[in-house]
Design goal:
It catalyses: N(6)-[(R)-S(8)-aminomethyldihydrolipoyl]-L-lysyl-[protein] + (6S)-5,6,7,8-tetrahydrofolate = N(6)-[(R)-dihydrolipoyl]-L-lysyl-[protein] + (6R)-5,10-methylene-5,6,7,8-tetrahydrofolate + NH4(+). One of its GO terms (molecular function) is aminomethyltransferase activity. The glycine cleavage system is composed of four proteins: P, T, L and H. The chain contains ten helices and 20 strands. It has about 400 residues and is of the alpha+beta class. The strands form four sheets. A six-stranded mixed sheet has the order 11-12-13-10-4-14, with helices on both faces. Strands 15-18-17-16-19-20 form a six-stranded antiparallel beta barrel. β11 and β12 form a beta hairpin. It is globular, with a radius of gyration of 22 Å. The relative contact order is 0.14.
Length: about 400
């Protein structure tokens, strides 16, 4: 490879819905190796639409990886920190793929589509690594790993009217089945006449559905959902609104709250690590990262992920230092991983890693916002919970 070839930028991949975004006037941005819509109109309008009615998201940048075969469940048990063999057909589980040292390579949602078939959904920028690791970790077992991202589109409908919109597009005999779909469950159905895997999952804190469809049918489905949803207040929403929504819901983002310097325990997600997994003979199962994670369980982590409520008006942003109010500003006790004004709550919110002695709820701290201390207080997460139906 020549020096010029080494420095030639690689073009971002385009979603199957790229032309739809351009036609709608979206501002596009590079994200995880893809050109994706940042916003269509305004971040605030799109955020509020999801909280009050519904938003339509293109998530086709996510990675879809099928793991299938007689030993698919056993292979995933060895590859991931969760107990995937215990997942029932039609259900899904949030889990992680970790390195040998227990650090997080990616957080995942895994759907069990059939007894011997699983769909692993990875973050866009990590999907090639996850695919590569799954191939390596499944070697020697009767399990086949297939990257399905190129032929799959993923569209999400999120918000309090999501169910009404999606069920308006399914056959009459499927309406009650889709309505009865549980959280973190999936089924196959035709949506607007298109075969789809319909999953009741999401990343906004609202009810909603994610629709996996063949890439060549994505534009047809996108337009059908827009037409059905617009009279109910649905709008297309971009990555910026998705980020503020997931922050209010206290959901981690890889590259911010999770990365290769972080274990699930530091992120407050130790519950996804199943150290008690056993193999078919009932022996302890040595999954990748188990030894390192077992040594950390119960030990005090060097840092703890907490929620911060801003007591002033200036928001903390990712990378800002967390300090003790009135003390030496060069003595940092943590750092902000994600932060923004909360459109729903009306005050700044943030997630941050801090040392354990300063992690108690109600602790008053400060964030160094461009040389000035902004007061914050530690609060429980999520910051926002959707109202429960009466």
């Amino acid at each position: 490879m020549t020096e010029s070839e080494q420095h030639t930028p690689v073009a971002d991949r385009l979603s199957p819905l790229h032309d739809e975004h351009v036609a709608l006037g979206a501002s596009l941005t590079s994200f995880g190796g893809w050109q994706m819509p940042l916003r269509y109109t305004s971040d605030l309008a799109e955020h509020r639409a999801v909280r009050e009615a519904a938003g339509l998201f293109d998530l086709s940048h996510m990675g879809e990886i099928e793991v299938s075969g007689p030993q698919a469940a056993a292979a995933l048990d060895r590859a991931l920190v969760g107990n995937l063999s215990a997942v029932a057909v039609g259900r899904a589980r949030y889990t992680m793929i970790c390195a040998e040292d227990g650090s997080v390579l990616d957080d995942l949602v895994v759907y069990r589509l059939a007894e011997e078939t699983f769909l692993v959904v990875a973050n866009a920028g990590n999907a090639p690594l996850v695919t590569q690791e799954l191939v390596r970790r499944c070697a020697g077992l009767e399990a086949t790993v297939t990257d399905q991202a190129a032929e799959t589109a993923l569209i999400a409908v999120q918000g309090p009217r999501a169910e009404e919109i999606v069920t308006s597009l399914v056959a009459a005999e499927d309406v009650q089945v889709v309505k009865g779909l549980k959280y973190y469950a999936s089924l196959t159905a035709q949506v607007a006449g298109i075969d789809a895997l319909v999953a009741r999952t999401g990343y906004t804190g609202e009810d909603g559905f994610e629709l996996f469809v063949p890439a060549e049918r994505a534009r047809e489905l996108w337009r059908a959902v827009l037409a059905a949803g617009e009279p109910l207040g649905l709008v297309p929403a971009g990555l910026s609104a998705r980020d503020s929504l997931r922050l209010e819901a206290g959901m981690p983002l890889y590259g911010h709250e999770l990365d290769t310097t972080t274990t699930p325990y530091e992120a407050g997600l130790g519950r996804v690590v199943k150290l008690d997994k056993v193999d078919a003979e009932g022996n302890p199962l040595e999954f990748v990262g188990r030894a390192a994670l077992a040594s950390r369980k119960g030990a005090q982590p060097a840092r703890v992920l907490v929620g911060l409520r801003g007591l002033g008006k200036r928001p903390a942003r990712a990378g800002y230092a967390v300090v003790i109010p009135g003390k030496d500003p060069d003595v940092q006790i943590g750092f902000v991983t994600s932060g923004a004004p909360s459109p729903t709550l009306g005050y700044p919110i943030a997630m941050a890693y801090v040392t354990p002695e300063f992690s108690a709820e109600g602790t008053e701290l400060a964030v160094d916002v461009r040389g000035r201390e902004e007061p914050v207080v530690i609060v429980p997460m999520p910051f926002y919970r959707r109202p429960q139906a009466s």
